[in-house]
Design brief:
Blueprint: E1 7-10, H1 42-55, H2 64-94, H3 107-139, E2 142-144, H4 152-166, E3 173-174, E4 189-196, E5 207-211, E6 219-221, E7 231-235, H5 236-242, E8 252-263, H6 276-287, E9 292-298, H7 303-313, E10 320-323, H8 335-338, H9 355-358, H10 363-369, E11 372-376, H11 382-393, E12 397-404, H12 412-422, E13 426-431, H13 439-452, E14 455-457, E15 464-465, E16 469-476, E17 479-487, E18 499-506, H14 509-523, E19 535-537, H15 541-554, E20 560-565, H16 571-582, E21 586-591, E22 608-613, E23 618-619, E24 623-626, E25 633-637, H17 643-647, E26 649-656, H18 659-674, E27 679-682, E28 688-692, H19 702-710
Parallel strand pairs: 2-7, 9-10, 12-13, 13-14, 15-26, 18-23, 20-21, 21-22
Antiparallel strand pairs: 1-28, 3-5, 4-5, 4-8, 6-7, 8-9, 11-18, 12-16, 16-17, 17-18, 19-26, 20-24, 22-27, 24-25, 25-26, 27-28
Helix pairs in contact: 1-2, 1-3, 2-3, 11-12, 12-13, 15-16, 18-19
Length: 714
């Protein structure tokens, strides 16, 4: 099944946020690769990815509770989009540092278009929630019980819950000259309350703010003894609404309206810091109270109160989102833990372990026989943990070095590193403290490892260490042998169950030497060392990737490129792909999220096809495939096709050279390219069309095919 033969369907309203079609130059006239119409806007492309996630909530092939979770993931994605991307554009304007991307759009133009599109998408989200998901859950006997529907028994239970669990921890704040508007935490649930009357001190303020305690669940299950059949859930916001008058005794509550403020959550650290960890601890506090970038309010909130909040936060009507439902939909993910309905969630599966590993007690023996390539989550992450555990206990292992970007302070990998250090081995951890939204966890991780005797370094200031590397030095038969793990994803067991990622384990001498040199660069100082097989950013990855694309262009119509990224934004890379397409190279790009390249434009990108795979698992593998005129070259990488990955981070791309593993990666890529139901095809006008099987054609969902192929594999 190819993109050309698949039936596609248009996404409703998806083409409203895209640029106009490209004007094709007359025959023989050279196309200007720098022209702004040849590039999509980065932010709008990110919004479209979020929308594709939202559309999963409407897909009946997903279980119902997982469709609700997709709706919540959309909210989470939008939160981060406003916290980082919208905040960044606003900062450019605030400080007069406007920059124009390849698409030619000014920050002010981008913000206006973002507001228009985001309002459409968020309105559609609440429409899906209220008119599709909640009614379907009602039919499955899962009820979100509204205040007007409470029985006397339920109302009494709620009153007791409010008095015992909520009232003791809530802190209402009246607004008057001695009580200025409080500093509200980023993304916290709050209520603005309209009051009438005077308090005990004779004050007559008219308004108050009630921050919902962050320690309380936003969704509570009603006990069965006050309900009929099924699962009955009530919102914390409903409980506070119902009993707001108890927070202001003797006064009349004329209205109570929920709202939530999203703030700038990006961290800004100088490059000349003396102590990165100390500076980061200080910045983490400011993240909770950055400048406001978005205000969400209940749609029944009076206009004057909305205007009051906008003024208080320095926002405009463009930044206001009136929603018909809870303002913090991300918290609805709790449904999965409150409701025991396995029939409404994805069925479980047991990730497989290849026979090469199962047949041997020692991971070192298995790796020496042949390099190992695992595709998570279909194949188990446990061999990576086992490799470290065995290394920690093995008396022949002398040293372990590892990069850590996101892992979790309580992970088995961290415990293995700590155990190795306590056993007297030389253990070095390169921890990236600036992994976004994992900074606090990584600071804790660093402290824990240091207490165990691990040498902890924080990489290179100004260059995030995003590479995924483990190096184990072992004495064997009178010589030292290096064992290496390289991956496309983080050393996080939880992510390995949700993200698709490759893990590669080898004892190839050249790769081992390369990884050793990379660790030397990260932990020590000196000139860049010559690397044999790996490509590494910020030094060689960008130039080598461009060179490989240009080599395929020399093969013309015999050239073949398949690139799998999470995002593609880097203009030199896009231009190289345009030139290769013009030379006749067939190019398939599998790009989950942002894509600034405009495909299928006559004379520019006729031979480039772009698809996005959205499904149960988050596509995270990065693969570079080059036909090389019959001498195929395949690389897996930690790096996407973005400026930050290729030019300002520490990244690696590693070759897959074993013929059977090369064939296996190609088979995986072909599976993605054959997908006719979970794939969305990018059009030349910027819209995405979802593939559908042709009449009489069998559905082929790539993730389900890989799940069937690899789970239980022998």
């Amino acid at each position: 099944m190819t993109t050309e033969t698949a039936k596609t369907r248009a996404v409703a309203d998806a083409d409203q946020s895209v640029p106009a079609p490209v004007d094709v130059p007359p025959a023989g006239e050279e196309i200007n690769l720098d022209a702004s119409e040849n590039y999509f806007n980065r932010e709008l492309s990110q919004l479209q990815f979020n929308y594709r996630v939202l559309k999963q909530a409407m897909d009946p092939t997903h279980p119902l509770i997982n469709r609700l979770i997709f709706c919540c993931i959309f909210s989470s994605n939008m939160d981060e989009f406003f916290e980082i991307r919208v905040a960044g554009l606003r900062q450019q304007m605030k400080y007069g540092r406007e920059t124009i991307g390849a698409d030619g759009m000014l920050p002010e133009q981008a913000l206006a278009e973002i507001s228009r599109v985001a309002h459409e998408y968020i309105n559609e989200q609440y429409d899906i929630l209220n008119n599709v998901l909640i009614p379907e859950m009602e039919r499955e006997n899962i009820h979100f019980v509204r205040r007007r529907e409470w029985t006397p028994e339920q109302a009494e239970w709620v009153r007791n819950y409010f008095e015992e669990e909520i009232l003791p921890v809530v802190s209402p704040i009246g607004l008057d000259p001695s009580h200025p508007f409080p500093r509200l935490v980023n993304k916290s649930l709050n209520f603005i309350v309209e009051l009438d009357g005077k308090d005990a001190f004779g004050r007559e303020t008219g308004m108050a703010i009630v921050p919902a305690p962050r320690s309380l669940p936003r969704l509570v299950r009603l006990p069965d003894d006050v309900c009929g059949e099924g699962d009955n859930l009530v919102f914390l916001s409903s409980m506070i609404h119902a009993h707001a008058d108890e927070l202001f005794p003797g006064m009349e509550v004329k209205g109570c309206y929920q709202f939530r403020l999203t703030r700038n959550a990006d961290l800004e650290l100088e490059d000349d810091l003396e102590d990165l960890a100390s500076a980061l601890r200080g910045e983490l506090l400011s993240r909770r109270f950055g400048d406001g970038v978005r205000l969400e309010v209940a749609d029944n909130c009076p206009q004057e109160m909305m205007e009051f909040l906008l003024t208080e936060f320095g926002l405009t009507e463009r930044d206001l989102y009136q929603v018909h439902g809870p303002v913090n939909l991300t918290r609805l993910m709790a449904v999965n833990g409150l409701v025991d309905r396995p029939d409404l969630t994805y069925s479980g599966f047991s990730p497989s372990i290849p026979k090469q590993i199962r047949s041997r007690d020692s991971m070192f023996d298995a790796i020496r026989k042949r390099p190992i390539l695992l595709l998570h989550p279909y194949e188990n992450f446990s061999p990576v943990v086992d490799l470290l555990r065995q290394a920690a206990k093995d008396p022949h292992v002398l040293a372990i070095r590892q990069t850590l970007y996101r892992t979790g302070a309580d992970s088995e990998i961290v415990e293995a590193l700590a155990d190795a250090a306590r056993r007297g081995k030389e253990v070095t951890a390169v921890i990236e403290l600036r992994a976004r939204f994992s900074e606090a966890e990584n600071l804790e991780l660093a402290s824990r490892l240091q207490e165990a005797g691990v040498i902890v370094v924080y990489g290179v200031v100004g260059y995030k260490t995003h590479a995924k590397m483990i190096l184990i030095v072992r004495r064997e038969e009178g010589r030292l042998r290096r064992y290496v793990h390289l991956g496309t994803g983080n050393y996080h067991a939880g992510n390995a169950r949700l993200y698709t990622d490759y893990s590669f384990m080898t004892c190839d001498e050249s790769i081992g030497d390369d990884v050793n040199k990379l660790f030397q660069q990260l932990t020590g100082m000196g000139k860049a060392l010559k690397i044999k097989k790996l490509f590494h950013a910020p030094f060689t990855l960008h130039t080598r990737l461009l060179a490989l694309i240009e080599r395929e262009a020399e093969f013309g119509e015999n050239g073949r490129i398949i690139l799998k990224f999470n995002a593609l934004t880097e203009t030199q890379l896009i231009k190289a792909l345009y030139r290769a397409s013009q030379a006749g190279v067939q190019i398939d790009l599998i790009i989950r999220g942002i894509c600034c390249l405009r495909p299928q434009v006559p004379g520019l990108s006729d031979n480039i096809r772009v698809r996005s795979i959205i499904g149960r698992f988050l596509e995270h593998t990065r693969v570079y495939y080059f036909g090389n005129n019959g001498k195929t070259e395949v690389y897996c990488s930690s790096a996407d096709g973005m400026e930050r990955n290729l030019l300002s981070r520490v990244e690696t791309a590693f070759p897959i050279e074993d013929p059977s593993l090369v064939a296996r990666v190609k088979e995986d890529l072909d599976t993605y390219l054959a997908d006719n139901c979970q794939s969305w095809v990018l059009q030349s006008d910027g819209s995405y069309l979802q593939n559908q099987p042709a009449e009489g054609e069998e559905r082929l969902a790539s993730q389900l095919v890989l799940l069937d192929r690899l789970t239980g594999k022998t």
